[in-house]
Amino acid sequence: MDPEPPLHETYKPLFASTKTDHRSLVTVEEGELPLVDLRRLSQKEAEKEKCKEEIGRAAHEWGFFQVMNHGISMELLEKLREEQVRLFKQPFQNKSLNFSAGSYRWGTPTATSLGQLSWSEAFHIPMTDISSSSMEAFATKVASLAKQLAEILAEKLGQNWSYFQSSCLPSTCYLRLNRYPPCSIPYDVYGLMPHTDSDFLTILHQDEVGGLQLVKDGKWISVKPNHQALIINIGDLFQAWSNDFYTSVEHCVVTHPTQERFSAAYFLCPSYETVIESCSKPSVYTKFSFREYRQKVQEDVQRYGYKVGLPSFIACQSVTYNDHACLGPGNETATAGYISNLTLLLDSMSSKASDKSFYNDSLNGIYSLFLCRGDVSGDVCRVCVNNATQTLTQMCPSDKGAVIWYDQCLLQYSDINFFGQPQFYPMLLMWNTQNSTSPEEGNIGTLGLFYSLVAQAPYEENMFGTNEMVVGNGPGRRYGLVQCSRDLDVSSCSSCLGELLNQTEECCIGRRGWRILTPSCFIRYEMYSFYEQTLSDPPRSPDLPQVNQGAGKGRKSTTKTIVIVVSSIAGVFASVLVAGFWYYSSSVKKRKQTGF
Ligand SMILES: O=C(O)CCC(=O)C(=O)O
Ligand SMILES: [Fe+2]
Questions:
Q1: ipTM for the complex?
Q2: CB neighbours (10 Å) of residue 343?
Q3: Which one-letter DSSP state was computed for residue 335?
Q4: 95 Cα: distance to centroid of ligand 1 (angstroms)
Q5: Which residue spans traverse the membrane (predicted)?
């Protein structure tokens, strides 16, 4: 009897609806993960501390690392693999009978396009369901290694390990045995779709075939297999608990045309009732229970076809930094007199942000303005402008001009009077490293969404507009937002937004999400709702995009004070920024690639 799950037959309709008839020629570099030798944990204090330091740094900078001398013998790893091979070799019909219901999965039942399909099968086994001797021996050892690593990571944050000790129990942790059948069809098919792990941390053992890839500095790199090492990766819960200090990194598995691949992963998970709350303040995320997190992930997968993850839990009051540029010093650096005038001006600007969403002012030859996004509340606007002034003062101490962009606001100043002039530079291009799920949607869909926005928003009272459209017959929607700084007149706003639309060809069309930001206007696109929606927003038809009127949605609106700040990109900013990853195409035009 055939052990193979019927992947070919089941997903044939998805191949048929895919236009690309070849594998896209994206080359992914092979990278070496940091490799930490755990033998030093049982050596003298100095060596031990160095080892802990390396673990903390790798979790912070990479979110992924390898460990050797981890205490699990090669012999045991080989026995586990033999057992795993046996388990997958049994007839397909029997596979779902081995463990408790739902433990066996193959393919992706929710996939509506090839990009959402995982060409693999897996046993997802609660630790308490394990009965075979080699699996049990592995599980015991790997569980204690996971706790030891979590303890070190907690200690590096100055926190107590007891939280993990009491919330992660054998009944809440899992072993997942993965098998990736060879996949020779001439399409891009994932073995496992890009994802972050929804646990505290994962310990993985992969075979020699390779195929694991992860995002580092905004680029996908493939992990060179090291059979003797174990791979450790930080999960979403550790990222939230560490308040973004450790990073839960996007990873995926690519298929091999001729070879099957096996891997085994251990997931350190808490009970569903465990509340995850950042260990430092102010918290980037609202506190949530593990149950709430799992439910939200499932809802998002149903709705969008992929997991949004931690960005769904960003705290309302928190603001998300995108980037800044120091504009100067030019011929002369800012003098002490200039700085003290600037400080006065910025203080006065900040004080205006609680009841104005746009303000421009000048003082002794210094010009400044702030603009809050049309849908954010007064509280968030104030927090954002405050953060912006503080950050620029620290980052550009001797520059006469600067601009900073957050998701929720922008702020700029200069010794040149820029009021009323559309400024296209510095221009920040940011895009999601993933393509949209259907490549053919690219130009027509996205641009259709924006044409009407760009035509109408300049005439709105606050020069702001959002728009959404339905794609296909499914639940999929696309969301767009544009806004101009209100020192511009209608025609300058139109030309500013038009210029941004021209740029989309270069960086962004066909991407899952992107944004282009200048000091005078910005434009953003996502496959999920990232701005506050009014209750009356009607569903849009695919061919008739309409602009949601900016007026009435602004922060003066008394009906809404809660801002939905959901950003797929926000979740990876942490890693991108920590790595300080930048592309400069010229001194004034910046690109930033984000990998969600
Ligand atoms: O098979 C691999 O290398 C990765 C597995 C993985 O990411 C997972 O099971 O979550
Ligand atoms: Fe994973």
A1: 0.99
A2: 12
A3: P
A4: 20
A5: 562-584
Structure token digits, residue 306: 């992929």
Q: In this structure, how many other beta carbons lie within 10 angstroms of the beta carbon of residue 586?
A: 9
Q: 230 alpha carbon to ligand 2 midpoint, in Å?
A: 14
- Neighbouring-strand partners of residue 522: 483, 517
Helix (H, G, I), strand (E, B) or coil at 345: helix
Cα separation, 129 vs 145, whole angstroms: 20
Over residues 207-266, the pLDDT tens digits come to: 999 999 998 876 789 999 998 999 999 999 999 999 888 999 989 999 999 999 999 999
Give the model confidence (pLDDT) of 530-580 as tens digits. 888 754 343 333 333 333 333 222 222 211 111 112 222 322 222 222 222
CA–CA separation, 240 and 245 (whole Å): 9
CA of 132 to the centre of ligand 2 (A): 24
What would the DSSP string read from start to end of 148-202? HHHHHHHHHTT--THHHHHH--GGG-EEEEEEE----SSS--EEEEEE--SSSEE
Question: Per the residue annotation, which of 81, 176, 179, 261 is the catalytic one?
Answer: 261
Q: Are 548 and 467 in contact (CB under 8 A)?
A: yes
- Tokens 């990873």 correspond to 251
The number of CA neighbours under 13 Å toward the Cβ of 443 is: 4
**Nearest residue to 167 via CA among 292, 266, 270, 269:** 270
Q: Is the peptide bond before 170 cis (omega within 30 degrees of 0)?
A: no
- Decide: helix, strand or coil at residue 348: helix
For residue 458, whether the previous peptide bond is cis, meaning omega lies within 30 degrees of 0, is: no
CA dihedral 569, 571, 572, 573 (to 10 degrees): 80
Residue entry with tokens 């001009």: 401
Bridge partners (DSSP) listed for residue 38: none
Nearest one of 553, 487, 496 to 521, comparing CA atoms? 496
Q: Alpha helices, DSSP H only, in 353-489?
A: 378-395, 442-456
Write the CA distances from 189 to 19, 105, 306, 472, 510, integer angstroms: 13, 17, 15, 22, 18
3-state helix, strand, coil in the chain (%, to 5): 35, 25, 40
DSSP code per residue over 41-65: GGS-HHHHHHHHHHHHHHHHHTSEE
Task: Answer yes or no: is the C-beta of 214 below 6 A from any ligand 1 atom.
Answer: no
Ligand 1 pocket, residue 176 CB under 6 Å = yes
- Supply the pLDDT for residue 588: 34
- Strand locations in 303-460 (E): 321-327, 358-363, 366-372, 401-406, 409-414, 427-432
Any atom of ligand 1 within 6 Å of the Cβ of 253: yes
Ranges of residues in the chain with a pLDDT under 50 are: 20-25, 535-596
- Amino acid letter at 440? E
Instruction: Give 45's contacts (C-beta < 8 A, 6+ positions apart).
Output: none
In 10 A of CB 394, how many CB atoms?
Answer: 8
